[in-house]
């Protein structure tokens, strides 16, 4: 019988850990003291705590579905020690396994139940296949990859409708834009990636950047075990992709060497058709044809080398290294597919960047962690366009209405005139993060990211005088964030509150020679500059209603600063400068839940959903008034106005006996903006998408200890238009509509008994359906690929 005294002196605390037979913490175990006098559930680390217990004798009982309950009698008396520790080890119940059990949280699940609208992609199972990182992203709920063609073409990422530069891409927290076009997501094989974190709408403070619509963070493998992975694939359109990456570590000293080499090539000579793919004959008669792209080859290669120390007393990771890459890209047309394609226009890029990484947990004192990641170097880009001859989609010389071959009067493929333009950049970026865990309930994080670009433009084909006075373009950005995380209500409620401060300075200097009224010439610098200071803030919270039902909510006032291309333009991407463009802002809200993971006998399943809204101000995009002009070669980014985006996405994951897997997700939203005082749908935006995938594994099919995996994927995109509605008369609008699209892929992979060699075969777009994306630019049709992947994890 418990005593009924509740004086301060007689109050006790009972705490401890609940684990299984293997020492794994059990999350969500029920802990009951007495006749429900005190109750709680264990946290993710298996720990529980019961407070304010009066003197007396009690029975503490711990239960967990699928396990045999355990209980222990305790006696609490008036002693100086008011804290009692009791640990429990539960044994699995044979009968319980036949019913319903709840699995402990994996690292992926923990990340997805922190309160943010986040999805985590694990790459381990798919890395042996011929799948690019962008394809992995395209299967994720709420994510849509917008790509202008085949391998090496321009890519935009859309998260819940916000796309382009509103979505920031990171590699281990460093903005990928700092690496240049020659080192992109398709240059990083999945075998080098630990996981991919996709934050939609609300971005946590540790990724302190101006991500308005969300962020994609590529977390590279940080395993300090010696390993080697090599793969090569070949397929349609003469596409070759090869990479080798590995790590070698001396156990005693911790000295570590990491390196990676990659090479990609494709002719991209796939077939295209449609409104702009025609053959112009005598009299200007245009005949629609199906043609092969002929000036669209892409080649990239690079090497990453790092050396330092891992898992030593003074650092968990200290690495310095170099990242060198280059690429070559032929340009088939401008921003749109036009009637007369380019031939002879191409781009070249290269980058040489030094990098440093330092990570240390419990620096100087327990709970203080530091993370520093920086890079510095040079990036160059060249645009070559000196051929005046006009060409048709047949690949032959274009003819005029008389039947004569002709040259462009401006002397180049693009209307700007012949160019051998070069852009030289000095780039620097450093991210610093500090976190201090006051205790298990409270944590403080401070982060800062700096990025700077010093850019110089030149062109040997302009006059000597113009080259003498070269223009410079500089952009510097600082973003600070402060985050406070706390956990309460027996670990059920987890909250993160953060604030961000954004600073950006841009300067454009163009020396000019001016003549005064007396005919005296002088050099005058035309300077255009801007300074931006903005503040943002937000929160994310999760509440475990039960161990397997979690409510998630997050909100943020986000700011997105215009980037280098939007401010200064880029000849290679056919973008015109706009130095007066303003930053865009958005108030983002998410509300959702996660249900599971449940295990019923051999069936595992989970369901998650998210309702969202985005209130956008000064949205950056293409001018709405001219979005219908598909003959334009050049584009310019402007502030379109204010708008709203509302929608919902949901995802179902199911596995059976670990052999069969099913994933299905759906995303539907609207995105409207005020144009001339009229609310309209934003053009060139797919509002309704569905993705699904199936997987089945056969063990020991041809050889013992072998595994054959069969994969199927489908991608559905509903009809959308890239034309702004032109009044009430909709005649002809169908010409600008992109029809419903359903692309389906099929794949096989065979893992040999030694677990080192995996062979795979993939068919993309099985039924060769026309697939379009940005501004109706057609993407590749049916394609076949084979791949060999070899991994060594142990060295004798």
From TrEMBL:
Provide the topology term for how it sits in the membrane: Multi-pass membrane protein
Q: Which Pfam families match?
A: CarboxypepD_reg, Plug
GO biological process, alphabetically ordered: siderophore transmembrane transport
Q: What is its main location?
A: membrane
From the UniProt record, which GO molecular function terms apply?
siderophore uptake transmembrane transporter activity
Ordered alphabetically, the record's keywords are: Cell outer membrane, Membrane, Receptor, Signal, Transmembrane, Transmembrane beta strand, Transport
**GO CC terms on record?**
cell outer membrane
Instruction: Indicate the transmembrane segments per the record.
Output: none
The UniProt similarity line reads: Belongs to the TonB-dependent receptor family.
Name of the molecule in the record:
TonB-dependent receptor
């Amino acid at each position: 019988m418990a005593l009924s005294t509740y004086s301060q002196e007689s109050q006790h605390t009972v705490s401890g850990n609940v684990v299984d037979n293997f020492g794994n913490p059990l999350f969500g175990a029920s802990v009951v003291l007495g006749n429900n006098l005190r109750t709680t559930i264990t946290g993710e680390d298996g720990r529980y705590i019961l407070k304010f217990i009066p003197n007396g004798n009690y029975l503490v009982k711990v239960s967990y579905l699928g396990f045999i309950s355990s209980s222990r009698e305790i006696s609490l008396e008036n002693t100086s020690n008011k804290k009692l520790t009791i640990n429990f080890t539960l044994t699995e119940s044979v009968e319980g396994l036949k019913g319903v059990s709840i699995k402990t949280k994996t690292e992926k699940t923990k990340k997805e139940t922190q309160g943010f609208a986040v999805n985590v992609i694990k790459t381990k199972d798919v890395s042996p296949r011929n799948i690019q990182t962008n394809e992995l992203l395209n299967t994720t709920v709420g994510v849509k990859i917008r790509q202008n063609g085949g391998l090496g073409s321009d890519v935009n990422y859309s998260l819940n409708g916000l796309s382009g530069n509103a979505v920031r891409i990171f590699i281990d927290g460093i903005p990928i834009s700092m690496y240049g076009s020659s080192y992109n997501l398709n240059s990083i094989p999945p075998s080098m990636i630990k996981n991919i974190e996709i934050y939609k709408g609300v971005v946590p403070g540790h990724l302190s950047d101006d991500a308005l619509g969300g962020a994609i963070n590529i977390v590279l493998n940080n395993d300090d075990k010696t390993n080697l992975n090599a793969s090569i694939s070949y397929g349609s359109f003469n596409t070759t992709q090869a990479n080798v990456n590995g790590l070698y570590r001396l156990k005693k000293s911790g000295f570590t060497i990491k390196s990676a080499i990659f090479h990609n090539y494709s002719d991209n000579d796939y077939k295209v058709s449609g409104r702009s793919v025609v053959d112009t004959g005598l009299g200007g008669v245009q005949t629609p044809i199906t043609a092969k792209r002929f000036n669209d080859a892409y080649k990239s290669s690079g090497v990453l080398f790092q050396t330092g120390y891992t898992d030593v007393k003074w650092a968990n990771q200290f690495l310095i290294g170099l990242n060198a890459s280059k690429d070559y890209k032929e340009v088939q047309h401008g921003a749109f597919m036009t009637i007369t394609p380019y031939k002879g226009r191409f781009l070249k890029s290269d980058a040489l960047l030094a990098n440093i990484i330092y990570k240390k947990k419990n620096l100087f004192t327990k709970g203080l962690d530091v993370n520093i990641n920086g890079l510095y170097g040079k990036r160059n880009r060249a645009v070559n366009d000196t051929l005046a001859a006009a060409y048709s989609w047949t690949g032959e010389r274009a003819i005029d209405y008389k039947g004569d071959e002709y040259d462009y009067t401006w002397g180049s493929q693009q209307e700007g005139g012949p160019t051998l333009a070069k852009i030289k950049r000095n780039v620097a970026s450093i991210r610093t993060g500090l976190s201090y865990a006051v205790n298990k309930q409270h944590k403080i994080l401070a982060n800062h990211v700096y990025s700077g670009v010093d850019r110089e433009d030149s062109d040997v084909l302009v006059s000597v005088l113009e080259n003498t006075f070269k223009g410079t373009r500089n952009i510097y950005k600082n973003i600070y964030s402060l985050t406070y995380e706390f956990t309460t209500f027996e670990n059920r409620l987890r909250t993160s509150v953060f604030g961000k401060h954004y600073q950006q300075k841009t300067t454009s200097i163009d020396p000019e020679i001016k003549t005064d009224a007396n005919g005296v010439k002088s050099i005058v610098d035309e300077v255009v500059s801007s300074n931006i200071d903005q503040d943002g803030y937000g929160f994310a919270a999760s509440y475990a209603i039960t161990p397997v039902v979690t409510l998630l909510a997050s909100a943020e006032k986000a700011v997105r600063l215009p980037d280098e291309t939007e401010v200064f333009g880029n000849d290679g991407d056919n973008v015109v400068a706009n130095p007066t463009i303003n930053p865009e802002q958005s108030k983002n809200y998410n509300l959702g839940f996660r249900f599971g993971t449940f295990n019923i006998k051999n069936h595992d399943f989970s369901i998650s959903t998210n309702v969202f809204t985005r209130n956008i101000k000064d949205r950056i995009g293409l001018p709405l008034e001219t979005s219908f002009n598909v003959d334009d070669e050049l584009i310019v980014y402007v502030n379109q106005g204010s708008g709203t985006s509302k929608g919902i996405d949901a995802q179902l994951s199911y596995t059976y006996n670990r052999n069969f897997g099913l994933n299905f997700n759906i995303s539907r939203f609207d995105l409207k903006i005020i144009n001339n005082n009229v609310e309209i749908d934003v053009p060139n935006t797919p509002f309704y998408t569905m993705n699904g995938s199936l997987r089945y594994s056969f063990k020991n099919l041809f050889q013992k200890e072998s595994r054959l995996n069969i994969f199927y994927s489908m991608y559905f995109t509903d009809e959308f238009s890239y034309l702004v509605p032109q009044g009430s008369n909709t005649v002809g609008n169908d010409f600008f509509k992109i029809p419903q699209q359903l692309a389906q892929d099929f794949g096989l992979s065979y893992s040999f008994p030694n677990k080192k060699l995996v062979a795979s075969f993939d068919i993309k777009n099985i039924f060769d359906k026309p697939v379009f994306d940005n501004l109706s630019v057609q993407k590749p049709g049916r394609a076949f690929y084979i791949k060999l992947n070899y991994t060594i994890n142990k060295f004798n």
